[in-house]
Amino acid sequence: MTKEILESEVYKEMESIENPSLVYPDYYLNPFHAYDEGNLSWLAAAEAEAATMSMVRRAIPYASSLDEANKIVRGNWLEVIQQHHKKYSGNSAIRDILDIGCSVGVSTRFLAERFPSAQITALDLSPYFLAVAQYKEKQNFSRSKPIRWIHGKGESTGLPSHSFDLVSIAYVFHECPAQAIINILKETFRILRPGGTLAVTDNSPKSEILQGLSPVLFTLMKSTEPFLDEYYLLDLDHAMREVGFENVSSLLTDPRHRTVTATVPIL
After folding, report:
1. Dihedrals φ, ψ of 61, to 5°?
2. 24 DSSP assignment
């Protein structure tokens, strides 16, 4: 998969994606996942989807196929989102979705399939990841409402206030320092409409599998995730309530990951 991307015409997408005036947060310039350039490289972007597949298979080791594993990991996540919004949104439809930290668009495509009538915007700090996302979308998909890809910061999106019904943040916060997480939550609160839903899915501090990792494996994992300790020490539910969200709910949606959902109060 990596070879296919690196030998493609993906590089032509960069000019239409990259925001040359964007100033990267200091934390984002750290090495991530054993890449010296972190997420700012073609190799990291080309390997991202394969890495995501590995993560899903590792989360559901008993699954007979990747499709079966995705039905559990992605299916449970999407079902929690849908049920939360139905329960707390005041019957508002999901018309506009923002996927923050969309990477190469894997989570974005699952959202598009579950909510086909919604207009989806996907935002990421890496123009390399976005170039791969846009390239793959052009090659493989034809949608009545094309996905809009934005090179930008989750803590300062520049998007209009009260313009989304759902904001999804999938497997992003474990790569962020605590203050960045709080800033992203504040920005999310601003851009969601009253009754809008925030959905965060990521590693669960309460996962028995993660708690049971050997010290060697946990140290190895932390060596490629510079802010993992800050993520695990942050009380995410409390942080959401402090920002102003209500109806905060956290569920273990697979053996390794939780999905935390919350609502912007209806005026």
Report:
1. -65, -20
2. P
pLDDT cut 70: percent of the chain above it: 95
How far, in Å, CA of 222 to CA of 202, rounded? 15
Please name the amino acid found at residue 20.
P
Q: Quick one: pLDDT at residue 228?
A: 87
pLDDT of residue 216: 64
pLDDT score of 47: 97
Q: Which two tokens stand for residue 38?
A: 């972190």
Q: Which two tokens stand for residue 99?
A: 């996927």
pTM given for the model: 0.94
User: Which ranges of the chain have pLDDT less than 50?
Assistant: none
In this prediction, residue 30 carries a pLDDT of: 87
Cα(232)–Cα(211) distance, integer angstroms: 11
Q: What is the 3-state secondary structure (H, E, C) of the chain?
A: CHHHHHCCCHHHHHHHHCCCCCCCCHHHHCCECCECCCCCCHHHHHHHHHHHHHHHHHHCCCCCCHHHHHHHHHHHHHHHHHHHHHHHCCCCCCCEEEEECCCCCHHHHHHHHHCCCCEEEEEECCHHHHHHHHHHHHHHCCCCCCCEEEECECCECCCCCCCEEEEEEECCHHHCCHHHHHHHHHHHHHHEEEEEEEEEEEECCCCHHHHCCCHHHHHHHHHCCCCHHHHHHCCHHHHHHHHCCEEEEEEECCCCEEEEEEECCCC
Confidence (pLDDT) at 107: 97
